[in-house]
Structure formats: C-alpha cells, structure tokens
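Troubleshooting: if your tokenizer reports a length mismatch, compare your output against this known-good record of 372 residues.
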Amino acid sequence: MGELKTPFRYDYVGSFLRPAELKKARADYENGSITKEELKKVEDACILKLVAKQKELGYHVITDGEFRRATWHLDFMWGFDGVAHQHTKTGLPFHGEQAMIDDTFLVGKLSLTKEHPFVEHFRFVKALEDENTVAKQTIPAPAQFLAQLVMPFAAENTHKYYTDDEELVNDLVNGYREVIRQLYAAGCRNLQLDDCTWGMLVDPRVNLFYGAEGGGVDRIKEAYLNINNRVIEGAPADLVINTHVCRGNFHSTYASTGAYNGVAEFLFARENVNAFFLEFDDERSGGFDPLAKVPEGKQVVLGLITTKSPKLEDKASVIARIKEAAKYVPLERLCLSPQCGFASCEIGNKLTEEEQWAKLKLVKEIAEEVWK
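Known-good structure output:
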C-alpha cells in the first residue's frame, strides 16, 4: 500500500535475472520476428510471476525487476528528447570484461515533452500492490545522467549542444522534476536513485575516468551532490527518495573499487535522501567507518549479500558484520539487502534464478534474527 515506506529491514535493490522466455522474446523483437505488443505480453506475464514470487518470499517491496529495460540506467535516458543510442563497438571497461551496452549520447537539447515510458511501467507494478506490499520505482540518479554526458568520452559531443554546463544541469534538473511529477501523479511514493558516480570518484583511476585530480575531483563531487539535491528538493514532501550506490554490476564483474571515505563528506553528510543502499559485499568497498558521517535520522541498507556469486554467505559472518556497522550507525537505523541487483543489464549475473531466490531467503532469515 502507498503508506508503506522503504527501506524495510530486509530489502533488495531492484533488478532480477531475466527468465529465458523474456530473453527469447527480446531477441525475437530485436530481429523483427515479433511485434512490440507481443513483446509486452511476454514482459507482462514475466513481471506477474516475478511479483508473485517477491510476495511469496514475504518481501514488502515489489518491482518489475527492470524486465522492460536493457540496462539499469540507459533506457531511462532514452526516454528524454534529445537523446539517441546505438550499438557499441567498444563497450565500457569492467574488470576482465567489456560491458557491451549501447553508446548513449545527445542529438539535441534535453527536454521531456511527453510522458516518460517508465511511468506506464510503474503503473503496471502499482496495480499489484496489496496491504503488505508497496511498489518501488528505480531510476538512475541525476548525477549518473550528468556523468554520461560530461565524462571525457562524451564531452566533445555534448558540447555541440551545450557550451554552458550550467544550462545542461538546469535542463537535466527540469527533466527529472517532470519525471518525478509524472511518477507521483501515477501513485509513486517510493523512488530510488541508482548511482555509480560515487564509486568512480573513489577509484584509484579517477583521473582516467574524469581527466581531473585533486581539487578538480572535489569540484566534480560538489557538482554531483548539487544536481542530486536540486532534484530531491523539488520533489513532493511525502515522496520517499532513497539512493543506491554501486561500483558497477555487469555479468558478475565490477567497474570501480574504493572505500567510501573519499566521498563520505559529500554523499553521506549532505545528500538529502532518506536512506542509503550501500555496497559492502567485499573488500573493494572498504570498512564501515565512513558511515559515521551519516546524519541522525537517516537509514543505511547494508549490502552484505553479493549478487555476483551463487555462493551463499555464512549467516554468522553476516550478523557479525551488521554488529560491526552498528558501531557507526545505530542498529535501529540499519537494514539488510544484497549489494546490488541481480541483473543490472539483460545479461544478468552468473547465478541461477534458484540461487537468486536463495540469496533473498537468506537476507530475510538474517534480518528476522537480528531485528526481532
């Protein structure tokens, strides 16, 4: 129901492994052997099964698993005027693998003159709410969209349409505010901003990513914080907005590494979200000490269960880590989830659907033991 608020003691990020029938339908649509309407019927059926499983496991949040998307972030960008995409020839550099996701770029000024496609996606899930569940909509953070347009590989093209970065930021803020207005009108009260930018900003290769170092990197952090907060400040007061911070999640690989210490003064101390879904599934994320910067009243969802491997975590070890985190954020403000989605892109991570569900059963089992 709409009055339920995320996050919950046991929660998840949002994306799920695509079933085989959905992958086939997507491929059939791409090669022209089925229509868009026929693809949607398969999507609808798979989402209905997914939500039924989410409810069966006892979760209070429901999503469409991002089943209507190719990637967690780019499809959202494609819903704006002035944005185009094409099959990539180079992909993005992940650890040991290139993420072959579409190149996405500007072909004009950014605007939103129609209903964003994600709004209809949300309506479908909203209609499946019951007295125990609430629909959550996930979208890339404004900073993520900005990064897509201003990082070194994209800046030259972007500057064909925007010689002034402030104008670009203003158009992005206005576009996001319109999307949020549309989602709110459709009944959305729980929104999640997915954000890989902070992970890139703590990576040792940050200079390679951004062509900046030292004070230049701090200026980028300030710019990303500013655009996120401007969008959040324009949202309705009763819309819960959380963020998920990630270091990349493609076919069980990652894009960046680094502890939160370098962004805690910006992200934790000053970003005006209700809760932080944080990646803590391995040593790449560093320790819990930066959580001391999270202000009183804000929640932290500890991503201690990995979606990158089928191996089930040891329950006692996870509980011990929750207790360690509670030294920096009181236990009553902590929750538990996997560190990321199970399929940030259609290819999905290297585990089976059964192993995916086993992970979520473990999250719930641990949470019910810790927060009795």
